[in-house]
């Protein structure tokens, strides 16, 4: 279907349009919304930018205050910081030590000048779940626009826009097994609040987001949404069992600890640390296992995870923390394989670190290689 979905004058365009609209229905169904409430974007990052900047710049009351949290994805944090640079006031709520943002602290942060609250549904680093449904009642009662970053929850939790009364919800296809480079923004109702487009041009998506629609990407996102809807309960059952198994394997490793609330989190995102073992060394010692540190590592320095630091996890422990994700296609053998290798690598790195420490007092002209000394925390 190579036709342009916006070309209604010929059959090729209309075929593509039908495919795009079918996908719109599939995404709408995933979140119990109406298809007209779904707008295509290039991913959750763009949806988030459109939601936050779009509402801020169109804000008809001239209000200037935004409430968000330190737990958010960089797409939210950096967008809000950009607005702060332009004179908006931003409150970054601090979660409790387990990564929870409770509705009361959101309520307490609201002022007469607040026009937007932006919070994530499921945190991507620790898996904690925010009570977006209760918060949506609070914001609605005060006429404040509420944006929910649901990139992580779409495949894991039911999102029902009749229960979560958010005005805006950001979604990403590749976080629910769809293709990369496509996402959606849910905008409630017939846009009872204005949004200033962030992309101008051919007026696609009813003028909210210009640009020729990528039919193939959108169809992929629709299929992913349909599957997520059909498989979610079954997937989560399997993932919960795998999560429990992985958690107990990792808990058995000496001096391991878990970050985030272990009760209010979605199974499948496991943030674990091994005292004294730097996450970067652990990752480098197991290139065959796909897991991440909570930190973004640039060539010159290691930046701690902003999520763990907002939980108040000391930097030394944050730098020893890694995150495992389990999904629809993870199996028990992989969990066992990963757990066994992690245990082995943690032991090996601790032995290495002990050996280095023993050598250090007597070393005269012996220099510990820089790479090792930075990688293995004392
Ligand atoms: C991945 C992710 C994003 C960004 O989504 P993209 O589609 O990759 O732009 C935003 N928020 C959360 C919570 C995410 O996990």
Q: Please state the overall shape, judged from the principal axes of the Cα atoms.
A: globular
The CATH architecture of the largest domain can be given as 3-Layer(aba) Sandwich
The amount of beta strand, in percent, is 5-15%
Largest sheet: 7 strands, mixed
Topology, pairings included?
Layout: H1 11-30, E1 38-41, H2 44-58, E2 65-69, H3 74-85, E3 89-93, H4 103-109, E4 114-120, H5 132-141, E5 145-149, E6 168-172, E7 183-187, H6 215-251, E8 256-258, E9 269-274, H7 279-285, E10 292-293, E11 296-297, E12 302-303, H8 306-310, H9 315-318, E13 321-325, H10 332-362, H11 370-375
Parallel strand pairs: 2-3, 2-4, 4-5, 5-6
Antiparallel strand pairs: 1-7, 6-7, 8-9, 9-13, 10-13, 11-12
Helix pairs in contact: 1-6, 2-3, 6-10
Bound molecules: pyridoxal-5'-phosphate.
Pyridoxal-5'-phosphate binds at residues 43-45, 73, 75, 120, 124, 149, 151-152, 172, 174-175, 183.
List keywords for this structure.
4-stranded antiparallel beta sheet, Aspartate Aminotransferase, domain 1, 378 residues, Aspartate Aminotransferase, domain 2, binds pyridoxal-5'-phosphate, 13 strands, 15% strand, 2 domains, alpha/beta, globular, 7-stranded mixed beta sheet
Molecular structure report:
The chain has 378 residues and is of the alpha/beta class. It folds into two domains: 11-228, Type I PLP-dependent aspartate aminotransferase-like (Major domain) (Aspartate Aminotransferase, domain 2, 3-Layer(aba) Sandwich); 232-358, Aspartate Aminotransferase, domain 1. The protein has helices spanning 11-30, 44-58, 74-85, 103-109, 132-141, 215-251, 279-285, 306-310, 315-318, 332-362, 370-375, and strands spanning 38-41, 65-69, 89-93, 114-120, 145-149, 168-172, 183-187, 256-258, 269-274, 292-293, 296-297, 302-303, 321-325. It has a seven-stranded mixed sheet, with helices on both faces. Helix 5 (132-141) links the parallel strand 4 (114-120) and strand 5. Helix 2 runs parallel beside helix 3 (74-85). The chain is globular. The model is unreliable at 363-378 (pLDDT under 50). The protein binds pyridoxal-5'-phosphate. Pyridoxal-5'-phosphate (PLP) binds at residues 43-45, 73, 75, 120, 124, 149, 151-152, 172, 174-175, 183.
């Amino acid at each position: 279907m190579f036709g342009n979905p916006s070309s209604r004058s010929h059959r090729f365009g209309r075929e593509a349009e039908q495919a795009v609209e079918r996908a719109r229905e599939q995404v709408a169904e995933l979140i119990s919304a109406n298809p007209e409430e779904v707008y295509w974007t290039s991913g959750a990052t763009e949806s988030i930018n459109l939601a936050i900047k779009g509402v801020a710049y169109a804000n008809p009351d001239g209000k200037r205050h935004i409430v968000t949290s330190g737990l958010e994805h960089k797409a939210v944090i950096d967008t809000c910081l950009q607005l702060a640079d332009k004179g908006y006031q931003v409150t970054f709520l601090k979660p409790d030590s387990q990564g929870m943002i409770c509705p009361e602290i959101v309520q307490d942060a609201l002022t007469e000048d607040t026009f937007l609250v932006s919070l994530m549904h499921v945190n991507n680093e620790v898996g904690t779940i925010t009570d977006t449904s209760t918060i949506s009642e609070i914001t609605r009662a005060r006429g404040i626009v509420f944006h929910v970053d649901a990139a992580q929850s779409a495949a894991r939790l039911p999102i029902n826009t009749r229960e979560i009364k958010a005005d805006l919800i950001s979604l990403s296809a590749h976080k629910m097994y769809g293709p990369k480079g496509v996402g959606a923004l849910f905008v409630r109702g017939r846009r009872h609040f204005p949004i200033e487009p962030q992309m101008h041009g051919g007026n696609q998506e009813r003028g909210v987001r210009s640009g020729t629609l990528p039919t193939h990407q959108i169809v992929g996102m629709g299929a992913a949404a349909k599957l997520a809807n059909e498989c979610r309960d079954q997937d989560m059952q399997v993932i919960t069992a795998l999560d429990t198994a992985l958690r107990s394997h990792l808990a058995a490793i000496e001096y391991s600890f878990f970050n985030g609330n272990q009760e209010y989190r979605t199974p499948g995102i496991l943030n674990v640390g091994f005292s004294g073992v730097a996450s970067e060394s652990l990752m480098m010692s197991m290139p065959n296992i796909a897991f991440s540190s909570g930190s973004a590592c640039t060539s010159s320095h290691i930046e701690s995870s902003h999520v763990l630091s907002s939980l108040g996890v000391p930097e030394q422990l944050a730098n020893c923390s890694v995150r495992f994700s389990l999904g629809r296609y993870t199996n028990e053998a992989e969990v066992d394989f990963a757990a066994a290798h992690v245990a082995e690598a943690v032991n090996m790195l601790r032995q290495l670190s002990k050996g280095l420490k023993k050598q250090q007092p007597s070393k005269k002209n012996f220099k510990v290689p820089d790479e090792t000394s930075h990688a293995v925390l004392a």
